[in-house]
Amino acid sequence: MAGVTAVLASTVPPVARRNRGGRLGRVRWYVYVLLGLAVIVCAFPLYYMLVVATVGASAVTSTPPRLYPGTNIVDVARAVFDTVPFFRSLLNSAFVSLTVAAVSVILCALAGFAFAKLQFRGRDALFILVLLTMTVPAQLSVIPQYLIISWLGWVDSLQAIIVPGLASAFGIFWMRQHMSSTVTDELIHAAKIDGCSSWQLFWRIAFPVVRPAAFVLGLITFTAVWNDFMWPFIVLKSPELFTVQIALKQLQANRSVDVALALGGSFFATLPLLIAFVFTGKQMVSGIMDGAFKG
């Protein structure tokens, strides 16, 4: 791997020194004000969800509306978890989301590497076909997808919502773009000279370089699967297999809605995502910015 090491050494840019007097070093006060307002606007719906859940419907109907939470959060949590098998639904959503995210990252990275760095007949036409699938609304694929799942005998099973999401056109496009911009052809040629196979080129050379982008794709996929309602609602019938979004639907009665119960369930369903982003926010930002600037 001497050739690969030499190419890596020649392609890694020097560490840029911070220029305190440069444009990036001068941040105006109004930038912080705008960022603070943006944070408040984004976080307020979640906060008000907690307020209504702990106070009840009176928090909405009172004049002026109540803007501070109550003290019965334990009672709301007990009602949510006793009304539906909410904890089991959280586990089902976590298992499905983690499985789809992990497998989708590998499959999309493999496809992205093939479209970016491998030469084969019809590569560009096939990639355009993948991009065209992004223009088709997801609702149009529900009936043929359900027929396939029914033919396989997977209705009312978790694999019915796992397998269809194991790859996506967006994920392939995302990984292909990052492979093209961050994995140089010189690095690939040097690895081939050293005797690397196609799998070694991907796993030992390309994938470590685009790992931040793969991490971001995993988070995006995890969030999308966690928040998906339509497809699990169609194929899942047994309460013990419900995902968290279906459990939230079960908290609502046919003719009336307990606002505190519904928003309490929504708050507890959103809490795992918030915890995940607290611990992975820095990696997500670095993954999004990776490859955004060149030179």
Q: What attributes characterize this protein structure?
A:
single chain, 295 residues, mainly alpha, MetI-like fold, 2 domains, 15 helices, cell membrane, MetI-like, transmembrane, transport, Carbohydrate ABC transporter permease
Description:
By secondary structure, the chain is mainly α. The chain folds into two domains: 38-71, no CATH class; 86-289, Orthogonal Bundle (MetI-like fold), CATH 1.10.3720.10. 69% of the residues lie in helices and 0% in strands. It is built from 15 helices and no strands. The protein has helices spanning 2-11, 29-55, 58-61, 73-83, 86-117, 123-132, 142-152, 159-162, 169-182, 185-193, 198-209, 211-227, 230-235, 244-250, 259-289. It is globular, with a radius of gyration of 24 Å. The two termini are 25 Å apart. Residues 11-22 have low confidence and may be disordered. It is found in: Cell membrane. Belongs to the binding-protein-dependent transport system permease family. The chain crosses the membrane at residues 27-48, 94-115, 127-152, 158-175, 201-226, 259-279. One of its GO terms (biological process) is transmembrane transport.
Structure summarized in a few sentences:
The chain is an all-alpha fold. 69% of the residues lie in helices and 0% in strands. The protein contains 15 helices and no strands.
Percent in strands: under 5%
The CATH topology of the largest domain comes to MetI-like fold
Query: Mind telling me the CATH superfamily name of the largest domain?
Result: MetI-like
Pick out the low-confidence regions.
11-22
Distance between the termini: 25 Å
